[in-house]
Amino acid sequence: MFFITHKIKSGLPLKFIDDLDSLPFPARHLVEKNEYGRFMNAYPFKRKFTSMISSRGCPYKCRFCARYSNVIKDYGYRERSPENVVKEIEKIDGKYRSVMIVDDNFLVNVKRAHKICDMLIEIKNEVDLLVMGARVDTATRELYEKMKKAGFKYLSFGIESGNQDVLDYYNKNITLNQIRNAVNLGSEFGFLMAGTFILGSPIETKEHIENTIKFACSLPLDQAFFGGLQYQKGSDLWNEAVEKNLISKDEYNAPADINRGLGNFTPEEIQAYTKEAFHRFYIRPIFMLNRFYRACERGDYRLVKRGIQYVNSTLNI
Prior knowledge:
The protein is α/β, with parallel strands linked by helices. The chain has one domain: Alpha-Beta Horseshoe (pyruvate-formate lyase- activating enzyme), CATH 3.80.30.20. 38% of the residues lie in helices and 15% in strands. It has helices at 68-71, 82-92, 110-122, 141-150, 164-169, 176-188, 206-218, 236-243, 267-282, 285-298, 302-315, and strands at 49-52, 55-56, 78-79, 98-101, 128-134, 152-160, 192-199, 223-228, 230-232, 253-255. α2 (82-92) packs across α3 and α10 runs antiparallel to α11 (302-315). The radius of gyration is 21 Å and the shape is globular.
């Protein structure tokens, strides 16, 4: 017999696991029948495809980021040991051929990244490794050379803006020169390079947005993702807006909107700028020629076909 009390009861308090090596690997056998195939429907990596997490959290404090540490007391950055990470990749090898590392920032601890690479090189890793989150200030020729040998194929950076004052406003603690260096160096080593950009910070003007689009187009990126700024619960920007009574504490997500004092544009204007950014980045002769060259270099002409499909999809954004 069940009784309905109409009351909300709190569960046990959160208990953080500091030793991430003590956790078992994901039960991938439960989804082995599923074929995920490609990543982002644009660039073909080895099949089958899976993901993994080698660390939790991020020690940096970008103002737009809804960090767990902002809303969950005592939540901090934790990482798995290089031995544990490589052991999971070894277990994956043979069942999955491509792995996306979906850490908030895989390269926080550069020393750990070097050791992971050294161990992967030693075991002659053949799994394609993709990094979803990385910072540009970790880029060095020595590290990228090791990553290349270790099987890394894809790097995605949170670039955010082509304006130094906007980067400073977001507390990114990176420079435009560091961005150029990281993307150019990664491209030199043959990594597929991606960057994310945010449009519509409270200090941005049309000139700022134009600078960001031009900056994105000036970089040898294979993928660029543009989106409007969102005030997300837990971020510094969200907390500041709540204190100013610009948004409610019950709102988990609010777009930067001039009508609410959260930006200098309406959401519709930001959407239009985002669409323009996608079109100007992808519908460029030099970009298309570079993709064709990449396909020839890799000997995989599926890259051209999927590149065309991806360009067509941006026209419908």
